[in-house]
Amino acid sequence: MTEQLSYCRICAAACGIIVTVKGDAVVKVRGDVEHPISRGYTCEKGRALPQWHHSSSRLDAPRVRGVEVEWNEALDHLAGILSAVSSADGADAIALYLATGLAYDSAGQVSCGMWLSSVGSTSFYTAATVDNAPVLVASEQIAGHPMLNPVWEPQHSRLLLLLATNPVVSHGYGTTLADPVRRLRENQAAGGRIWTIDPRRTESAALSDEHLSVRPGSDVILLAALVRELFDDEHCRDALARTCRDDEVSRLSKAVLPFDLDAAAVATGCERSDLNRLVADLRERHGHVAMFCGTGSTMSIDGILVEWLRWVLLVMTDSLDVIGGMRFNRGVVNQLSPIRAGTDPLDGPKSRPDLARVAGQMPVAALVDEIESGRLKVLVITGGNPLSAFPEPDRFRQAVSLLDALVVIDVADSELCDLATHVFPATGQLERADLALAEQVAFRSGMQFTSAVVEPVAQRRPVWWILGSLAARSEHPMFGGAPIDSLSDEIMLRGLLGHGPFPPDEVIDAGPHGVNLEPDYGWVRERMTPDGFWSIAPEAFCERLAQHRGPELGLVMVPRRESAWSNSVRFAGSGDEPVVLIHPNEARDRQVVSGDWVAVTSAFGSLVATVVIDDAIRPGVLSVTHGHPGSLTGTLTSSSEGVDSLTAMPRASGLPVRIEKLGM
C-alpha cells in the first residue's frame, strides 16, 4: 500500500488529505496534519471518499438514449445535433448549466466557458441563481465587481456575526472554513466574540457567545435598525465620510430612518436588551468586525437587502478591506480587474423579460420557460441535478422531453441520467489533477495543487477532454487546435497558472500544501471602485427597503445543510429519508411525534418527510434540507411567483407552509 497527499474537492474548504491506495483501490482517507490550513481536519464526507470513489453508482461508459456506446460514436452523434441546432435556431439555442458538483474541477470548470464560447452561445446558467445571486448583485453594486467577496481573518477579528449560516456543517459560506470548530474557538480564545443570528440553535450557534433566535424574514429589519443605531456613533459616521460619497450617506440615513431597535425587537421576537448588547459589541469592536450570511437569508424574500446591509455594517465599522476587518483576495488564477465602463450587459431571457442576467449568467428561474418557448434546444448539465435544486421539478422533468438533446456530464448515475439523451462519464476527484480555484472565498490567500491519486478506470474522461473532443468536431476547436490526446490535466493547469504571480513549477512542486500570496489591504477601493468610494446606497436597494414587508405570519420553512451530504449527493452515513425538524409546540398542536410522516405544503406544491422533533428550532418554523433528492424542496417553490426582480432568485426560505400528518 502507498500513501499520497492530496486535498478534498467536495467543497471549497479544500482540506488536506492523505489517501491510502492499494493497486487501483482507494482504501482510506485521513486528514493531513501538516496541511497549513486544515491541520489534520477532515469531515465525514471527506473520510468517506473511498466508498464514494468505488460506488456502484459511478458512471463508466458513454450512453446515447440509454444504450452504452464508445466515445467516438457518442461524440459524433451529439456533434451532429449541435451543428443542426446551431444552423437552424442559432447558437443561443444551446445552453450549459454549471453546477456545484463541477465547481471544484478546475480544468473542467474553465473548459465549460471555453466550450460555450466555441459554440458561440451566451446561454450560460449556473447554480448561483439557485442560492447565491444576492451575494453577487450586492458586490457588483457596492464594490464594482460581482466576484469581490469579503473574507474573515480570525487572527484579527474581534466580532463575528453569523447570519443564517452554519459553518460548522457547511464549512463556510463566503469564507471557506476548514476545521471550523477549532477556528471559532481559537478566535474566541484570542478575545473574539461570536453572535449567531438564526431561527435554529445550529451547531455553530452552540459554539457562539450569543444566539439570537430570530423569526425567519426579520433579518432585514434587524440589520436596518443596527445601521440606524450606528449612525449615532461618531466613529461610524467618520468611516462613512472617509469611504463613501456624501449624497449616498445621506440617502442611506434616510432609508434606514423608519427602522429602530423597538421595531427590530418586535419583528425578530428577541428582547430589546439582547439587541442593545449587539449594538454595544459593534461599537466596542469598531474596526474588527466580520460578518457572513448563508442560504437561510440569500434564498429568502429580500435576501439582496440582507447582503447589502451586511456590506453597510462592515463599511460603517471600518472593517472592510483593512487589517483587522475582512480582506479581499487578489487571486492567483482568478485575478480580478475593474469592469470596463460602458460595457453593455447581455440580454436576459426573452421568455422572461422581467428577469435580467446575474454576473453575466442567465437566471435558472427562466430555464424551463426558454425550453417551453422553443428557444433552447440543447441543454448540457455539468455536475448537478436540477431535479433536486430547481423550482418546480415536475415541470422541468416534462420540459426536457422537448429538447433535441439533454446532455449530462457527471461522475454518478441519477434520475437525471435516465432522462438524458447523452450521458458522459467524468473522472472523479481522485482521478484528476486540480488547482483550488475558489480563490475569492478562500481562507488562505494563495494556491494549492494536487496530482491525480489513481488513474481513471473504464471509459471515464476529464470534463475538459469531453468538451474539447466535442469542439474538435466543429469548426471552432478549443485549446488552440492542439490534438486532445496530446494534452493532460497538468498541461491544462499549467496554462491556467501561466499569467499568475507564481511560476507554474513553484505551485506544482508545492503540491497540496500550497503557496501563500501575501494578503493585500486597501486595493479594492483603490483599484476596483470607479472613484475610490463604496457605492453604499444604490437607489434600487433603498427603494426596495422602503417596500419591505417583514416576516410572514404563521408556520414557515427554512433550509438547512446536513453534514453527510453535499447538496443532492450523500457522501457519508446511511439513509436517504428526508427529515423535517419541528419544535415540540408545533408537534403537539398538530398531534405528530418523531417518526411520523407528514406532508409539507406551500402555495405551490407539497413534499413528504419524516418528523424529527427538535427544541433547538424556534416555534413557528420547520426546517428541511435544501437539495435533498428525497424531499425535492423545489416542489414548494415557484419559478414565476416571488422571484426577486433584482437577483432573479426564486424564494426558498421563509416560505409559508402547513403540515399534515399522513398514514395511521
TrEMBL record:
PANTHER family: ASSIMILATORY NITRATE REDUCTASE CATALYTIC SUBUNIT, TRIMETHYLAMINE-N-OXIDE REDUCTASE
Keyword Metal-binding in record: yes
Signal peptide range in chain numbering: none
Descriptive protein name: Unannotated protein
Recorded family membership: Belongs to the prokaryotic molybdopterin-containing oxidoreductase family.
ATP-binding found in the keyword field: no
Pfam families per UniProt: Molybdop_Fe4S4 (PF04879), Molybdopterin (PF00384), Molydop_binding (PF01568)
Annotated source species: freshwater metagenome
The entry's keywords: Iron, Iron-sulfur, Metal-binding
